[in-house]
From TrEMBL:
This is DUF2867 domain-containing protein. The lineage of its organism: Bacteria, Pseudomonadati, Bacteroidota, Bacteroidia, Bacteroidales. It comes from Bacteroides faecalis. InterPro entries: DUF2867.
Length: 145
């Protein structure tokens, strides 16, 4: 991840997929955001819990994907408490392999943003790792049917 000095929190999760066909960043983000039911329920619970704090549900992340290139797609969601940027990167590697990565960058605007993110961070890490593994499995299964 480049230019992380402007953020209060950054992470990156990556894995190698084995595929004969190149998976572009748009496809990666689409598969990544097709969450299992337990994550959807967790996100609905989060929306109910933060409503009294003035945090809005907003659009689904999949509606906010911006394709920068074949290899990079981003999602940016900004509010008065924090700015969130999610970056999807795909990189060709050796024969029939590709690295897929998802990174998160957060900039806090106030103490409510810090408190909110501190509360959800363990869930964030679990969800990112789960969705990346699920994405890898779904891509590899669909390409080798």
């Amino acid at each position: 991840m480049k230019d992380n000095k402007n953020y209060d929190y950054t992470d990156e999760f990556s894995d190698i997929i084995h595929t004969v066909r190149f998976i572009n960043a748009a496809e990666l983000s689409g598969v990544f955001f097709s969450a299992p039911k337990w994550i959807t329920i967790l996100m609905k619970f989060r929306n109910v819990m933060v409503r009294p704090l003035g945090l809005k549900k907003g659009k689904d992340f999949s509606d906010l994907v911006h394709i920068e290139s074949e290899n990079i797609a981003t999602v940016c969601k900004n509010d008065k408490h924090l700015n969130l940027e999610i970056v999807f990167i795909t990189e060709s590697m050796e024969r029939d392999s590709q690295r897929i990565s998802v990174s998160t960058k957060v900039r806090f605007h106030n103490s409510l943003g810090k408190c909110y993110f501190a509360t959800i961070k363990p869930f964030h890490n679990l969800i990112c790792k789960t969705l990346l593994q699920r994405t890898k499995n779904n891509i590899e299964k669909s390409l080798y049917k």
